């Protein structure tokens, strides 16, 4: 048996049945297998079985079989098998005409074949010679070594074009074996032997593409990586190939690539399947791994993660590239190759490929799948559900009038505090599902088998769950143990992937886009979470401490509420209290769940943070405390740091002035430093025009400019003015930088700031009223002061 990792999967109808084309990476190289003679299967209620032969009388190559399965209504069903997908589709049309419900018709043959064998990505193939391809019908099984991963070959790809992407200038590739640019135009072949850098000049687009295709075939990468790789580079190459009557020849074994294009109403994205190779986009992988940045441009990510830069930056980058193509092709080649190198280094540093592989192995999602939380859940859940004797419902069949609430957010107590601890429940919702056995299948079993109270665990809104036969609690327990092992082995990508997947389970069950969405099930999770947070608060307050805020899975505990007139506790005392509270609360929950429900607790509360000083602000214009907005001062390894949550300092729609002002003002107040001069000087410097570069707003266009009709926000007004002034075309997703002037918002650039674009004086009072005052007053309020008072006091001294 040979270990193999799945790269791509496709399927097609043939006269002999459905054929699955599966490409794998093995330690001996790539491998193409074909699984032939497969059938399309779906299910209908058994009572309709006598009617089906007559209904399907004109259909060929189908069969019906009794199976030991039932639907979620506890009704027995039969399986319908079809030799070809087109016949299955015709049968479904006939069933719809008769208003006969059928199930699992949307499960594609490759996914069904693999998931029913519990194969996600890594598998064992019964093959001996991978050179003879395609290999037909090898035996497949899950890998025995679940941590086995192959060494995949990567190739970083980047193209340069004219501004309208109609003219190709060059194609660069970067990998361990080659660092090459294919440049269109005249010039002599150049190479640097020690670095393997080379520039190959090509007569025209066609030769450039053919040289590129030959290089890809020779290097034979498993993975193509890039930045906006599919939506730009590959799509542009596809369009150019079509004009030249060429095939975008990137698939293994000369297999054709396949495109799917969304309508503009669906987002307008394009998707590509390259048989035997995977196209991975750095932007999409960063987002999938929950990395969040203000901008996902290659320039910003390279600066943030690598401390490196592209060789050409700024709003005129497109013109600069064209000028280099016309005047200095070697400089353009250097720039093109540099982008490939930056992408390569980002993938290596952030372990993005390792993350993608671990996610694929855990979920059954292909390496290049974007999003897919629902698909991942169903891939894991369906084969286990079948073994419990059920087929899956259709989308929307389990919905009801029950409303499932969100996470519990406690009313906060606004103020400035000394010594606040944060106690955080580790993976609260997965722990609730695991502890209280919350699971769709367990809900059905409890209903259908009429179980006694001793055989079930109660939920909410009429839900209750069987103690035996559940699926999700076991899956979560296995994932949790796997994550603990990953941490022990310092396998950060695997640990990170498991965390994201476990935490997605509630979101999937609570999504109307999931076939298992049942408000009774998901409300049993959220309402239990409400109860756990509220009862934990009561327990903590019984220990003599005040809980000033709670948010879904966290509690903020003030330690000084009963110590009026006493010296505040030191850091060591606070840490000891935090650890003790967490330990004793975990013990209390273990006893409580055993006593009240006869279940084992998987709840785990951790002492997470000690804030030396902490601010819970009020809602503006109100005395009520805010939610999900606070700031605090922590000490890490002897160094004090500010932490902001939901406040202006961490929001992209506030100016740098507001962010810097808030960070320094809060720091001074929390550390007991004088802040009066700082506030007054900042105010004066804004009015004097000394902070102009910090006053810039920067916001992304979420739609095309012409789509803003009724409500035209300031950044769109500025963008329209910028388009008129510069002649540039701004697209959805572009950023616009602007200032508020006496004549409203005016642009100062898109990629780079140019204050010379301003037509009117800056409205400095706007920035005092809308940026400085809200930030200052949110904390000065608790000191019975305001920015206006401090400034007026200064004026009166010199009046």
UniProtKB/TrEMBL annotation:
Q: Which SUPFAM superfamilies match?
A: DNA/RNA polymerases, Ribonuclease H-like
The DNA polymerase II insertion domain covers 41-98
Q: Give the molecular function GO annotations.
A: DNA-directed DNA polymerase activity
Residue ranges constituting the DNA-directed DNA polymerase family B multifunctional domain according to the UniProt record: 378-780
Q: What class of enzyme is it?
A: transferase
Start and end of every DNA-directed DNA polymerase family B exonuclease domain? Answer: 103-301
Query: What InterPro entries does the annotation carry?
Result: DNA-dir_DNA_pol_B, DNA-dir_DNA_pol_B_CS, DNA-dir_DNA_pol_B_exonuc, DNA-dir_DNA_pol_B_multi_dom, DNA/RNA_pol_sf, DNA_pol_B_thumb, DNA_pol_palm_dom_sf, DNA_pol_type-B
Q: Which UniProt keywords apply?
A: DNA replication, DNA-binding, DNA-directed DNA polymerase, Nucleotidyltransferase, Transferase
Identify the domain of life: Bacteria
Q: Which species?
A: Cellvibrio fontiphilus
> What name is this protein filed under?
DNA polymerase
Q: So what does this thing catalyse?
A: DNA(n) + a 2'-deoxyribonucleoside 5'-triphosphate = DNA(n+1) + diphosphate
Q: Which family does it belong to?
A: Belongs to the DNA polymerase type-B family.
E.C. number(s) listed in UniProt:
2.7.7.7
